[in-house]
């Protein structure tokens, strides 16, 4: 699409995307990076603007920010990363280097040092290659269907650097739970490195994964925390957080490309301060009420079974629309594609587990958009149900 440099009011988001010829979306699919994450809290935007006024030593800022994050979330130690993804690279790099400056300087060359990461095959996922960036390799335990503690332990060799663990929707079935995986890792003198990127809320998870034995847990700052989209944080044992910090940007290391600006660091702190203070029960009630209004609208559509789900697999109340055996229309991904057409593009989750479901996630639905979401979902379902 050609762009008209005079089009659009530069003081509004709508104006900016109009000038660029990019169509905005209503985001009813949650904090997915491809659909621009979540809306940063006003406190985060204000802190970023304010932080642009000063210069600091970034090492000093990162150490202080880590201390503040740790005290806010009730962790022993913490540090800032470039998204939870950046945290995965840094976790693996920490496991092979353990603060040794010579190893840090030569990564991703891991010749002659333990460089294997044991991971349950059930826990392989789309972003897991980030764990391999520092010259590491996976050794899989179990198979696609299941993993037992015995299989996990049998995968450990003298060449193992860490045990990797994923906490993510639909990934904990028939898998070794975190507490047992941590016991096995620790019995072999290894760290348990966990990815909990999307597991907030519930806010309890800020304490749960470390109390169950994880040495480092990676969380996103740009999902429901609603900090700057490019931020994340690691929490855990002080020695492991320090190993992670030493191998992370701004140092000249494997992770140098993952820098986080002072503005983003300040924005993350501001958003976390709000996030941990929010009354989770009241927040959940609000999301549930919003989702009930969508559910009411589509209740009569033939061939679907819709419900509100809020559990391990659904971090906040979602409307889950299941296409039943009597559904005659297209599959979930096709319905989602149709919702992205037209003037009111609505993004919903599909294809996450199979192609017979779509989910509506309230996190990013802005004031005034809920009716449009309900109407568009109803409209596309009814058109397809005929
Ligand atoms: C979202 C997610 C990531 C990536 O997090 P970013 O903060 O976007 O880098 C990594 N792992 C899992 C399981 C996730 O859900």
Describe this structure in words.
It is built from 13 helices and 13 strands. The chain is an alpha/beta fold and about 375 residues long. Helix 4 packs across helix 9. The chain is globular, with a radius of gyration of 22 Å. The model has no long low-confidence stretch (mean pLDDT about 95). Pyridoxal-5'-phosphate (PLP) binds near residues 197, 222 and 232.
Give the strand content.
15-25%
Strand count: 13
Shape: globular
- The poorly predicted ranges are none
N→C terminal distance: 35 Å
- Proportion in helices: 25-40%
CA radius of gyration is: 22 Å
Largest sheet: 7 strands, mixed
Strand order of the largest sheet: 2-8-7-6-5-3-4
Mean pLDDT: 96
Computed structural class? alpha/beta
Strand and helix order = HEHHEHHEEHEHEHEEHHHEEHEEEH
* Small molecules bound in the structure, each named once: pyridoxal-5'-phosphate
The total of helices stands at: 13
């Amino acid at each position: 699409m050609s762009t008209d440099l005079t089009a659009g009011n530069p003081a509004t988001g709508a104006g900016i995307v109009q000038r660029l010829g990019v169509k905005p979306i209503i985001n009813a699919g949650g904090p997915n990076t491809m659909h621009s994450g979540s809306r940063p809290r006003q406190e985060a935007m204000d802190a970023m603007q304010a932080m642009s006024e000063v210069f600091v030593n970034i090492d000093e800022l990162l150490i202080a920010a880590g201390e503040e994050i740790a005290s806010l979330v009730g962790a022993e130690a913490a540090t800032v990363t470039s998204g939870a993804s950046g945290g995965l690279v840094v976790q693996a790099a920490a496991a092979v280097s353990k603060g040794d400056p010579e190893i840090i300087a030569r990564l991703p060359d891991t010749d002659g040092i333990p460089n294997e990461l044991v991971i349950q095959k059930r826990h392989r996922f789309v972003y897991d290659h980030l764990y391999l960036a520092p010259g590491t390799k996976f050794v899989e335990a179990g198979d696609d269907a299941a993993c037992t503690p015995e299989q996990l332990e049998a995968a450990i060799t003298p060449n193992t650097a860490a045990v990797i663990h994923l906490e993510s929707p639909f990934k904990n079935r028939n898998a070794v739970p975190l507490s047992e995986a941590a016991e096995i890792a620790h019995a072999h003198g290894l760290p348990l490195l966990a990815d909990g990127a999307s597991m907030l809320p519930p806010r309890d998870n800020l304490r749960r994964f470390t109390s169950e034995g994880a040495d480092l847990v990676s969380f996103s700052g740009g999902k429901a925390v609603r900090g700057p989209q490019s931020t994340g944080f690691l929490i855990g044992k002080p020695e492991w957080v320090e190993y992670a910090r030493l191998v992370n940007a701004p140092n000249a290391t494997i992770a140098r490309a993952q820098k986080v600006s002072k503005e983003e660091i300040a924005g993350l702190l501001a958003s976390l301060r709000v996030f941990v203070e929010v009354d989770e029960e009241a927040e959940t009630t609000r999301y549930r009420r919003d989702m009930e209004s969508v559910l009411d609208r589509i209740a009569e559509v033939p061939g679907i079974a819709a419900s509100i789900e809020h559990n391990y697999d659904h971090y906040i109340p979602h409307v889950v629309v299941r296409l039943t055996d009597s559904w005659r229309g297209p599959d979930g991904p096709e319905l989602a594609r149709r919702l992205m057409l037209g003037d009111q593009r609505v993004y919903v989750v599909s294809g996450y587990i199979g192609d017979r479901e779509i989910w509506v996630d309230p996190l990013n639905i802005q004031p005034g958009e809920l009716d449009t979401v309900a109407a568009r979902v109803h409209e596309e379902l009814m058109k397809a149900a005929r």
